Amino acid sequence: MKLIDGKKISAEVREELKIEIGKLKSAGKKVPGLVTILVGNNPASEIYVSSKSKACVEIGMLSKSEKLSPDISEAELLSIVEGYNKNPDFHGILVQLPLPKHINEDKVIEAISPKKDVDGFHPVSVGNLVIGKDTFLSCTPAGIQELLTRYNIETKGRHVVVLGRSNIVGKPIANILLQKKENANSVVTVCHSAAKDISFYTKQADILIAAIGKAEFVKADMVKDGVVVIDVGINRVEDKTKSKGYRVVGDVDFENVAPKSSFITPVPGGVGPMTIAMLLKNTYKAYLKYGE
Predict the structure, then answer these.
(1) Partner of 37 for a Cys bridge, out of 66, 116, 127, 182, CB 3.0 to 4.6 A?
(2) Annotated catalytic residue 145
């Protein structure tokens, strides 16, 4: 069993981008810019936005955070997004979700220019992914593919079983690995709550991607020997031995599944660190494709 170290790979991606951005600065060129828009005071969202801004600064990108009142109108928010669509200094726009209930998230996502959709959520980006065109990939699924690639894990012809069908992870990673492309070209099965016996499918997986949102759901008897396990779950479970009163676990029963695995991601420290790294990579891609 080998641990897939998301912290290590994330650091590699960031360092590579830092070098490229350093070259741009040395040549006197404009650098990639990312604006993050946060509406309201969601503590988790504030932490995410702060982490994203800090990561931008560390690699030399231009970073700006817009913190808006939770009472802002939908029209005002759409106007702000449109302003950044037209601003040549910012190549990526990220509106932190969730938004307050009075704002239509779909409308806001669709208002972001597809050329600046570094979250990969715009219907144009999703559509391009499905039909195999070059596009911005959702950051967490892109991070999963990056981990598989950098650990030289073969995907061609392998049976990938995805647990979960969310628009953020399940659907996009299924479509990414389905493509007839390098580091993909897999046989993909997507499982969800309607399956009568999920273990029937998970036992067939060469690569199992768990994004179902249930703490330690995948047990050892649900996987075959030698499986590659990518655990996307982040769940809090009560643990009175911890100072915070809880511990963070994935969707996989790590202790018992790991011995059967050839590769496995830990939680935390696996997929999580890759999300911001791929956001930075998407922003750099937007700069190269649509920037100066």
Answers:
(1) 66
(2) no
Instruction: Give catalytic status of residue 96 as yes or no.
Output: yes
Residue 52 annotated as catalytic: yes
**From the candidates 5, 116, 117, 119, which is the catalytic residue?**
119
User: What are 137-168's pLDDT values in tens digits?
Assistant: 999 999 999 999 999 999 999 999 999 999 99
Residue 83 located in a structural domain: yes
81 and 205 belong to one structural domain: no
Domain that holds residue 200: 139-272
Q: Please indicate, yes or no, whether residues 236 and 168 belong to a single structural domain of this protein.
A: yes
Domain assignment present for 145? yes
- Which CATH number goes with the domain that contains 86? 3.40.50.10860
CA distances from 250 to 5, 246, 254 (A): 15, 13, 8
Within a domain: 109? yes
pTM for this model (two decimals): 0.96
Kindly report the length of the chain: 292
Find, among 275, 290, 292, the residue nearest to 117 by Cα.
Answer: 290
The active-site residue, picked from 96, 116, 145, 231, is: 96
Residue 292 has pLDDT above 80, yes or no: no
Q: What is the mean pLDDT of the chain?
A: 96
CA distance 282 to 276: 10
- Per-residue tokens: 105: 């998230």
Total count of domains within the chain: 2
What span, in angstroms and rounded, lies between the C-alpha atoms of 12 and 6?
A: 10
Q: What is the DSSP letter of 37?
A: E
Same domain (yes/no): 204, 145: yes
Query: Smallest Cα–Cα separation from 122: which of 167, 88, 153, 179?
Result: 167
